[in-house]
């Protein structure tokens, strides 16, 4: 029987991360025997949404109006829930939810439940994320574990891997951003991190579990797993 839940994806931040999120939905959905067994998914990939980090750090153009436009589009399309494959964008989630009747899933809450259930004795997690997410400290706000970030030098490497001319947002997911992220991740492990969290949705495009001696956690894969388990 075809699934009735319609998943909305508020995407484009960036487009490659949105495509990866959709691929995760396809791959992580269980008990698939034909096309009709998959979720119906409506994706609004809206890369013209102003940059969230620029808005938070430098008072750049607010993304809120564009985000609300996408939420309303997904509402009109008949979506039953909305997922946002952008960790920094979650800064605006309460405002968006207050203006929408459709449930907007919070990836931070899903991540926290995962850590508490699977790793109850874990004390410290290392987070690689944008400067914007780090400034508003969404991870410490939502997670019960101690959160540590890279020092200034290694944080610059993370930002270079994401935003640099040879970074992920410029279409490069090979050796250069991978090496920068590995260096930052290994630094966090040296500082006592018992897991590495991909705190920006672009990060998992250029690095993964094979690069680290502790668990590498992608919140977007956890969010997809939550959707599959609760809405399949």
Automatic annotation (TrEMBL):
Kindly indicate whether the keyword Nucleotidyltransferase belongs to this entry.
no
UniProt keyword annotations, A-Z: Isomerase
Q: Which residues form a coiled coil?
A: none
Which InterPro entries does the record cross-reference, listed alphabetically? Asp/Glu/hydantoin_racemase, Asp/Glu_race, Asp_race
Give a GO molecular function annotation for the protein. amino-acid racemase activity
**Record family assignment:** Belongs to the aspartate/glutamate racemases family.
UniProt cross-references to NCBIfam families, sorted A to Z: asp_race
The name on file for this protein is Aspartate racemase
Q: Which organism is it from?
A: Facklamia hominis CCUG 36813
């Amino acid at each position: 029987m075809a699934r009735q839940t319609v998943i909305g994806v508020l995407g484009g931040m960036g487009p490659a991360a949105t495509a990866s999120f959709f691929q995760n939905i396809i791959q992580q959905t269980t008990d698939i025997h034909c096309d009709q067994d998959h979720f119906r998914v409506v994706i609004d990939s809206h890369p013209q949404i102003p940059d969230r980090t620029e808005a938070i750090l430098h008072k750049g153009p607010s993304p809120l109006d564009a985000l609300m436009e996408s939420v309303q589009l997904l509402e009109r399309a008949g979506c039953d829930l909305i997922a946002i494959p952008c960790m920094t964008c979650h800064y605006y989630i309460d405002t968006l939810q207050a203006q929408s009747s459709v449930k907007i899933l919070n990836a931070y809450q899903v991540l926290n439940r995962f850590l508490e259930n699977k790793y109850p004795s874990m004390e410290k997690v290392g987070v690689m994320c944008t400067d914007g997410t780090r400034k508003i400290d969404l991870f410490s706000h939502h997670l019960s574990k101690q959160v540590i970030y890279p020092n200034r030098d290694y944080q610059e490497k993370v930002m270079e891997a994401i935003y640099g001319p040879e970074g992920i947002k410029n279409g490069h997911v090979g050796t250069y951003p991978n090496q920068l992220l590995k260096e930052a991740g290994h630094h966090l492990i040296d500082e006592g991190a018992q897991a590495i969290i991909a705190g920006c949705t672009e990060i998992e495009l250029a690095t993964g579990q094979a690069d680290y001696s502790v668990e590498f956690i992608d919140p977007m894969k956890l969010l997809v797993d939550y959707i599959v388990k609760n809405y399949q």
